């Protein structure tokens, strides 16, 4: 979570410098700023992987059997979840501030689904960061550039789709589909299978 906050700080500083250089807030800077923020987040995710990898090696050295009590997959899940929760909190904080008033959502012809859609988008971001953490760590461990590229590309795609708001049908639908597909991919990487689901449901 701290590393995600560092990426947010770096993105904020980059935005402030860009606005100062332009002398004004140019709308054309928004997509570039969003892309830079995504790349900084993924860079911090990679730093988190390297840090936890070193910590895992240290724990293995301290263990009696030469093995770490935590697996890299567990660390990937916790890291992704912390990234997601941090992202979700900052995503929803401004929306909650707006909900305090004054005014009524939709009174000037805006969508009345603003808050419920924002809630679903925040939920999708939290889940996506968790799934991306699992996929990203596995790709780093196996040195799979394709997996890393798909995580970064998926993150850029989700950020880009949010620019379609308030046309929520065009943004929320694809993001939820991407969340489902990414979740299935992360489930498979974590060793999950349909057989395991059946065993879980039958309590065996």
Automatic annotation (TrEMBL):
It is found in: Membrane. The chain crosses the membrane at residues 113-137, 144-163, 175-198. Pfam families: Aph-1. Its main location: membrane. The keyword Transmembrane helix applies. The keyword tRNA-binding does not apply. Residues 1-16 form the signal peptide. GO terms for biological process: Notch signaling pathway; protein processing. Belongs to the APH-1 family. This is Gamma-secretase subunit APH-1.
């Amino acid at each position: 979570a701290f590393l995600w906050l560092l990426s947010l700080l770096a993105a904020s500083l980059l935005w402030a410098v860009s606005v100062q250089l332009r002398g004004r807030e140019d709308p054309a800077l928004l997509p570039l700023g969003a892309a830079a923020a995504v790349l900084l987040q993924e860079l911090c995710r990679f730093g988190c992987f390297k840090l936890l990898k070193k910590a895992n090696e240290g724990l293995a050295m301290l263990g009696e059997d030469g093995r770490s009590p935590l697996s890299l997959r567990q660390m990937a899940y916790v890291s992704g979840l912390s990234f997601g929760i941090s992202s979700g909190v900052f995503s929803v904080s401004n929306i909650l501030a707006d909900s305090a008033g004054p005014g009524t959502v939709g009174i000037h012809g805006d969508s009345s689904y603003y808050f419920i859609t924002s809630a679903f988008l925040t939920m999708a971001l939290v889940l996506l960061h968790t799934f991306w953490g699992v996929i990203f760590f596995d790709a780093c461990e196996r040195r799979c550039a394709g997996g890393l590229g798909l995580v970064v590309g998926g993150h850029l795609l989700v950020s880009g789709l949010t620019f379609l708001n308030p046309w929520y049908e065009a943004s929320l639908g694809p993001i939820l589909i991407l969340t489902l597909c990414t979740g299935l991919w992360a489930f498979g990487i974590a060793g999950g299978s349909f057989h395991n689901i059946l065993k879980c449901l039958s309590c065996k």
